[in-house]
Task: inverse folding
């Protein structure tokens, strides 16, 4: 209830961009975002006795905290499909920090006073719900790079499975075991070859699409230059016509003055 306080939430956001060039000369951009949020505490108006502007401020603070609590509950719940980020400005601003590729840390400010026991318990429950948020981080990258990386991950996974299977059957006797081992080896080789062919084909398609996009961009640039030249020619013709018109006008004025 400080008379000099705005009694509002505060968000301080830091965004860091990093650009790197790999061995192939391709540029990759990474971005990190940090939101530092200072939430105003909820207040029971019956306890604070707030009136007027302070009462309006407390009401808005409690509404935004309730909206944030609903978002956290929806993120924790496995049955909930809709996350109500747009219920308040606070949840909308924090949407990528709560349910995106992020880690959420909440620091709860509680007190030992028995008078505020109910508020302390509610705050701890609130923080516990935030603690249970589980996110599945995904790398923000170019779709082409993501597809190639996905195929490479699948290929590495198959290689690992093959190595484990071969390790499991090694050292065991019997014709049937040897036959099974060879069958597994052949099947995995076929799967690996199929995956490698798929990656190679996708790389070729990406290369062709990149060349087509480059050619289309060059054609658009050339078309824009042609249009620019035509416009300049028309502008020069118009200027010449204006100069000719001004000369004729001067001649007519000279004749009128001479008479």
Result:
């Amino acid at each position: 209830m400080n008379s000099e306080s705005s009694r509002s939430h505060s968000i301080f956001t830091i965004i860091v961009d990093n650009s790197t060039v790999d061995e192939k000369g391709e540029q990759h951009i990474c971005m990190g975002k940090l939101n530092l949020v200072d939430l105003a505490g909820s207040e029971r108006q019956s306890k604070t006795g707030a009136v007027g502007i302070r009462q309006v401020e407390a009401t808005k603070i409690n509404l935004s905290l309730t909206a944030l609590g609903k978002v956290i509950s929806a993120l924790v719940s496995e049955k909930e499909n809709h996350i109500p980020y747009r219920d308040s400005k606070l949840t909308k601003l924090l949407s990528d920090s709560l349910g995106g590729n992020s880690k959420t840390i909440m620091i709860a400010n509680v007190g030992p006073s028995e008078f505020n026991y109910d508020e302390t318990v509610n705050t701890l429950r609130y923080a516990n719900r935030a603690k249970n948020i589980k996110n599945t981080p995904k790398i923000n990258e170019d779709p082409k790079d993501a597809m190639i990386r996905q195929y490479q991950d699948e290929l590495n996974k198959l290689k690992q499975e093959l190595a484990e299977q071969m390790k499991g059957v090694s050292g065991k006797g019997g014709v049937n075991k040897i036959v099974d081992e060879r069958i597994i080896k052949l099947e995995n080789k076929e799967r690996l070859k199929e995956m490698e062919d798929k990656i190679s084909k996708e790389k070729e398609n990406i290369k062709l699409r990149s060349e087509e996009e480059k050619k289309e961009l060059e054609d658009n640039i050339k078309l824009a230059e042609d249009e620019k030249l035509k416009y300049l020619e028309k502008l020069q013709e118009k200027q010449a016509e204006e100069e000719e018109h001004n000369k004729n006008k001067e001649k007519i004025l000279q004749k009128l003055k001479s008479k």
Summary: DSSP finds seven helices and two strands in the chain. Residues 143-223 form one domain. The mean pLDDT is 78. The two ends are 91 Å apart (CA to CA).
